[in-house]
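User: Second chain of the day. Same drill as before.
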Amino acid sequence: MLIILAFILLFHLASAVLLFVATIHNAWWVVSAAGREPIFSDLWYSCNSTCYPISNSHTADAAYLQAVQATMILATILCVISFFVFILQLFRIKQGERFIFTAIIQLFASLCVMVAASIYTAENKSFHVTSLQEGSYGSSYILAWVSFPMTFISGLMYLVLRKRK
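Assistant: Same format as last time:
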């Protein structure tokens, strides 16, 4: 039982780290022009040797970008909260009960990641300037999609898991 608990904790922490990196790191979109250094764009800035904010990110034209920002931040917060709720429930719930509250929070985190990555996939051309539209998805985007099934599986594990001795 202790091995299963350690695996679940490590799996949850790995998904939280992936969410943090995906949200913070500046490689959601990469533009590599021939003979020039690559430009990395994240949810807030576009960077090569210097960083500058994504144009019009504070206007209604970038509402999709703001939705991605909000849902990725919310997913990260929910994942961290569900970890602390799991630790609390580990000491508070009775034997035989399930970790339903932790599972619900973790499944909401998974939903937020899916929504953020889906919106970014569908609308990434709408908030990049014309010179940055011919690029490809970066490592943070891929990490966001990898963290989606990890948080989802983690939430399902909490649904199935019962507290034992």
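The radius of gyration is 18 Å.

User: Great, on to the next one.
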